Each structure stands twice: as structure tokens, then as C-alpha cells.
Amino acid sequence: MLFFTDDSDIFLIYVQLTVIVLAENSMSLPAITLWSDSRFFSPYVFSVFVALKEKGLAFTLKTIDLESGKNAMPGWEGYYLTRRVPVLEYEGFRLSESSAIDEYLEEVFAPPVWARLYPYDINKRALARQIQAWLRSDLAVIREERPTSVVFGGEKKTALSDNGRMAAEKLITTAQKLLPQGQINLFGEWSIADTDLAVMLNRLILNGDEVPERLKEYAAFQWQRSSVQLWLKLSV
Ligand SMILES: N[C@@H](CCC(=O)N[C@@H](CS)C(=O)NCC(=O)O)C(=O)O
Question: Measured from the CB, is residue 235 less than 6 Å from ligand 1?
Fold first, then answer.
């Protein structure tokens, strides 16, 4: 039977147990590999890179030159998946598609032991997944006219087409609805959907396109995270 004299005893035991759990986790961690494009321009690899960094996981970063087409040749680890990056390798298991990988990492390295990527609340969690899926399936014209060479490579593109302007208006209106004035994260605290949304907004912002000030502040705030800054060091 255990006796606690006061709250500080309970706190101490909690801290000791946490240290043991973290120590066991780090000792028994099998190798994780993340495959990236060699220019570090992929917004999808970026999402997984940020997820791994936010979780505090050690991993090996390997690259494949997409321009040479090596990703479409048998022999590359991702060939029998989607032939695209990102690919995550963990304990002999390989997975493609960035949001599937983000969700996998959240389940394997689950909160509260590991840092949280998705909101705690079930509805907010569903919304975070909705936003991730939307950003990957819609707004194709923004992706085309404002590629991530603008975001990660400092390129500047010419004015948006009519379709581009319509897509930008849709993105801005939706983002404003999702982010009421003064809100710096989508769901009260950071989630991986914030990083994905900031990339999409930065396609416009970093090109110099017109974007409301409050969305610029949101994107700049998201860009300050150390997980993001570590990626930006790779892509210069
Ligand atoms: N929906 C995928 C998109 C992945 C994707 O489009 N990857 C690009 C790089 S950004 C790629 O590997 N392209 C090479 C190709 O399709 O051959 C995800 O979220 O991971």
C-alpha cells in the first residue's frame, strides 16, 4: 500500500514514471526513415517532417531526385506504393500519402506520452482531417500557379489567372471563417492542419499576392515553429 503525504509526492512519482516511460521509448525506438524530394520543396514531405519533429522523434532523412524520374523506377523503396514522396519506413513497414502518415504517427506515437498532432476533441479532430483532405484535393490552380518553389525557394510568379483568383478568394474566405479575428491556431492549440493551411496561404503571401493582414499574421506565426524552421534550413 502506498501513502502520499501531499500533492508534491504524487507529482514526483508522476515525473519519475514519465521519465521511465520516455527513457524506455527512446531506448527501444526502431529506426524511422523519411523519404523526401531532393530539393525539399514537397509540401507533403514537409507535413510529415514537421509531424516527426513535433513528436520529438529521431529519424533518417533520405532523398530521391524526382526530376530524374528515379521515383518511378523499380528499386526505389516507394515504387510499389505510390511512386511519390513522402514515404515513411518504420519497423519494416512502408507508408505513402502524407496525411495517412501523419495520422499513423499520431496512433503509433500517441498522446499524451508523445506530443499531440491532432486536436483532443473528436469534432475538432475530424475538422483537422477535413482541412488536410481539402487542401490536398481542392485549390489545384493555386498549387499550379503558386508552386512551393515560391514558398521554399523564394521564386516569384506572374499574376494569377482568373481561375487562380477565384481559388485564392475561396481559400481566403474559408481560412477567415476557420480563423476568427485574433485566433492564432485553428483549434486553440497547434495542430498539423495549421502547418498545412499555412503552406497554402504562404503560396500567395510569399509571392506578394493580396491576402488579408490577419491571415498573413497567422501564417507568419505558424512559420516561427522550430519544426518549420528546421525544414526551411534544408530547402535553401
Ligand atoms: N497526396 C500525396 C501527394 C504526394 C505528391 O504529390 N508528391 C510529389 C512531390 S510533392 C511527388 O512525389 N511527385 C512525383 C511524381 O508524382 O512522380 C501526399 O499527400 O503525400
Answer: no
* pLDDT tens digits, one per residue of 147-198: 999 999 999 999 999 999 999 999 999 999 999 888 999 999 999 999 999 9
Peptide bond just before 212 cis, omega within 30 deg: no
Give the rounded percent of residues in the chain with a pLDDT score beyond 90: 85
Look-up of cell digits 493555386 = 142
Respond yes or no on whether the N-terminal peptide bond of residue 111 is cis (omega within 30° of 0): no
Beta strands, E only, the chain = 32-37, 60-64, 87-90, 93-96
Give the mean model confidence (pLDDT) for residues 68-91.
Answer: 95
CB-ligand 1 contact for 86 (6 Å cutoff): yes
CB atoms within 10 A of CB 46: 27
d(CA 14, CA 213): 44
State whether the Cα torsion 80-81-87-90 is positive or negative: negative
Query: By alpha-carbon position, which residue is closest to atom 12 of ligand 1?
Result: 84
Q: What is the largest CA-CA distance in the chain?
A: 73
> Which pLDDT band, with edges at 50, 70 and 90, does 3 fall under?
very low
Asked if the model's pLDDT at residue 9 lies above 70, the reply is: no
CA 25 – ligand 1 centroid, Å: 31
Nearest-CA residue for ligand 1 atom 10 is 42
> Cα of 96 to ligand 1 centre, how many Å?
9
Which ligand 1 atom is nearest residue 84's CA?
12
Residue-wise DSSP of 209-236: ----HHHHHHHHHHHTSHHHHHHHHH--
